[in-house]
Amino acid sequence: MVQKYQSPVRIYKYPFELVMAAYEKRFPTCPQIPVFLGSEVLRESRSADGAVHVVERSCRLRVEAPRLLRKIAGVEHVVFVQRNVLNWRERTLLIEAHNETFANRVVVNENCSYTVHPENEEWTCFEQSASLDIRSFFGFESALEKIAMKQYTANVKRGKEVIEHYLNELISQGTSHIPRWTPAPVREEDARSQAGPRDLGSLEVDGPIGAPGPAPEVVVTDGDKLDADYIECCLGHLTPMQESCLIQLRHWLQETHKGKIPKDEHILRFLRARDFHLDKAREMLRLSLSWRKQHQVDFLLQTWRPPALLEEFYAGGWHYQDIDGRPLYILRLGHMDTKGLMKAVGEEALLKHVLSVNEEGQKRCEGNTKQFGRPISSWTCLVDLEGLNMRHLWRPGVKALLRMIEVVEDNYPETLGRLLIVRAPRVFPVLWTLISPFINENTRQKFLIYSGSNYQGPGGLVDYLDKEVIPDFLGGECVCNVPEGGLVPKSLYLTEEEQEHTDQLRQWRETYQSASVLRGAPHEVAVEILEGESVITWDFDILRGDVVFSLYHSKQVPKPGPQEPGARAAGQLTDKGWVLGVDYSRVEAPLVCREGESIQGSHVTRWPGTYLLQWQMHSPPGNVACSIPGVEDVLTALHSPGPKCKLLYYYEVLASEDFRGSMSSLESCTSGFSQLSATTSSSSGQSHSSPLVSR
Question: Does the structure show a pLDDT above 60 at 367?
Fold first, then answer.
């Protein structure tokens, strides 16, 4: 594979002639570049009027590689041939170089140019590009490639410093100005003897000139080029190879993309998201640009107007900036009725609103870059989880959240600079375990999580936010105008017809299983737990009637006795021979669930075995069944025309290794999460349940 390098435009704020005098000081040797052992002139020629000077040199470079590799290669230095064409009239120096050593195994080509700045003729621009093609090298191709690119980029950085060193030396010696070249007066007899213009190939030379090599790659500075000062000022410090990747990806867009070219900050985010692997970043960016075009995202800020309901109940908004100048977004997730919002405006409207937040975030980063005079390419998000409960684990809501995470990760990479999560309750580990596998590792490392009041004081918010901007609801003095959220009234929900139109109901129904509960014939689901500490989560909606929900544990797998097929279909898994406290035990107190309610809950298991989720029809207070009904009760219920209850349910088991792994990844001396993690992991001695009823 051919490795390529392309530099940005580096600007010397000195005239071309003075820069050329500094450049010539690098030869025949240059102590400031230790790997450069020396050079000798092979050929040299000048035009008749002295305007064009061509020099061909042989340059020796020391090999900086492991001793074993040098021994196998049998060389301590390599030879490069460099051809310089200096045109005083046009004020350009074009340089091309190629390797002579191992030329049949490794091909290195380099092209450089010094030109006059297009907007200031007293400044000089420098650009260089190179390619490396390792065809074969004694089985060490990969190692050689890494060594060569590392050494080359180190010399790229050093090259500019060397020129500046010699410029300062010239100035200190009293040479601060060198007159521009002017043609010598032409005598009349010389003018008559010239039959016509001559090109460089017919130049009179002071010595023999070799056959000209391939024309050097001319790099012209124009508005589509990036200069190094702009990168440093507006994009931040980049290594030479990172600069090269940015320029190459930008050039690819200019050649292939027909729509609006993304801004440099946005292109750079994709490179960072793929660790500056050019091909991977290009593919990620290509897919994102296609997505933006398909969904008209470039016009989102001009066309999207959130419904009034979202503006009132979506508890998020922008709030000044953090201590580093990043725009600050506050999300009071614990106060937000995600289920109500989805049922009132739909998932697509919520997604579009989240996208508009990300678009606005990029715009604010650009504004803060100009305001503070330093590169700001990401924002900070402060998430308040006070009020977070099992209602937020409503499965369609979790699925919608995962979809939004996926869309944002794919199309807005590296836009989150820091995520501050405060007042994380005990239910948070369950939510974190569900969503963390879908969050990129680089993004997860930016999370700081605080439980309780640990966000207050040293090590808390004051380390990341100025005291003047800490919101009042977190103990600060700054009034925060972010909406407080709250429950969305059911009267504002979309009708079933509207939900069907958006395909929302079908998607939700695919998440859940349906069940009917008859009097005396409960519906039961067996969950096998192979090890002690796991987390069982459940989420169900009562569509008709009232039911009692219970959770039981048994050391044995239920083996239903001889029952009618209908009993099996009704969902009962146990027989009348089981005795409460002997064959099975109740691990959750019965919970009465009314028609229309939505129930979310979780249970941290204490023992391995079989856990039974049971729904049975609710009876008057004096007749609530405390044991599993017998076969006769079930048969009677099946053949009686009595009422039945209907429900939709979903359950999931979070294995202990996943749960603990997620928790341990959050622990740190600065996160303030240790108490929450300890609470979670201490459940081996007792069970924890967090049911929530919402209407």
Answer: yes
When comparing pLDDT for 691 and 615, which is higher? 615
* CATH 3.30.530.20 domain span(s) along the chain: 2-173
CA distance 80 to 101: 7
pLDDT recorded at residue 125: 93
Give yes or no for a contact between 261 and 254, defined as CB atoms under 8 angstroms apart. Answer: yes
What tokens appear for 574 in the block?
């146990």
Report the DSSP pairing between strands 585-593 and 52-62: unpaired
491 compared with 512, residue with greater pLDDT:
491
* Radius of gyration, alpha carbons of the chain: 36
Alpha helices, H only, 173-194: 188-193
Q: Find the mean pLDDT for residues 20-47.
A: 92
Q: CA 641 to CA 639: how far, in whole Å? A: 7
The single-letter DSSP state of residue 437 is G
What is the predicted pLDDT for the residue at 557? 75
Note whether 557 and 526 are within 8 A (CB): yes
CATH fold group of domain 307-489: Phosphatidylinositol Transfer Protein Sec14p (3.40.525)
Question: DSSP label at 473?
Answer: G
8 A C-beta contact, residue 470 and residue 461: yes
Residue for token pair 């030379």: 205
**Nearest Cα residue to 8 out of 238, 340, 353:** 238
Average pLDDT of the chain, as a whole number: 82
Pairing verdict, β 379-384 and 327-331: parallel
26 contact partners, CB below 8 Å, separation of at least 6: 33, 36, 162, 166
Cα gap 607→73, rounded to integer Å: 64
The DSSP bridge partners found for residue 603 are 536, 689
φ, ψ of residue 645 to 5 degrees: the values are -100, 150
The pLDDT of residue 16:
96
3-state helix, strand, coil in the chain (%, to 5): 40, 25, 35
User: What is the pLDDT, as a whole number, of residue 551?
Assistant: 93
Distance CA 347, CA 563 (A): 44
Residue 455's Cβ-side half-sphere holds a number of Cα atoms within 13 Å equal to 26
Residue bearing the bigger pLDDT, 10 or 692 = 10
- Give backbone dihedrals phi and psi of 220, rounded to 5 degrees, phi first: -105, 130
- Per DSSP, 55 falls in state E
CATH class of the domain comprising 228-295: mainly alpha
Q: Determine phi and psi for 504, rounding to 5 degrees.
A: -75, -40
* Residue spans of alpha helices (H) in 486-630: 496-501, 504-511, 565-570
**Range list for CATH 1.10.8.20 in the chain:** 228-295
* Residue at 592: amino acid letter: V
CATH C-level class of 512-657:
mainly beta
Q: Is 390 helix (H, G, I), strand (E, B) or coil?
A: helix
Res. 280 pLDDT band, cuts 50 70 90: very high
**Ranges for all domains in the chain classified under CATH 2.60.120.680:** 512-657
* Average of per-residue pLDDT across 290-312: 94
The per-residue pLDDT for range 255-268, each reduced to its tens digit, is 998 888 899 999 99
Cis-peptide into 28, omega within 30 deg:
yes
pLDDT for the residue 352: 95
pLDDT in tens, 373-417: 999 999 999 999 999 988 888 888 888 999 999 999 999 999 999
- Look at the domain 2-173 and name its fold: Alpha-D-Glucose-1,6-Bisphosphate; Chain A, domain 4 (3.30.530)
